[in-house]
Amino acid sequence: MVEPEPSVLRSSPARRAHWEAIYAARPEDELSWHQGRPGLSLRWIRRYAADRASRIIDAGAGSSRLAPWLWQAGYRNLIALDISRAALDRARAHAEQVGARVTWLVRDLARPCRLGPVDLWHDRAVYHFMVRDRDRTTYLENVRRALVPGGIAVVASFAPDGPSTCSGLPVRRYSGRELAGSFGSGFRLLATRRERHRTPWRAVQPFTYVVLRRTSARAGPPLRAGTGARRRHRR
Ligand SMILES: C[S@@+](CC[C@H](N)C(=O)[O-])C[C@H]1O[C@@H](n2cnc3c(N)ncnc32)[C@H](O)[C@@H]1O
Question: Using CA positions, which residue lies closest to atom 3 of ligand 1?
Answer without folding.
Answer: 125
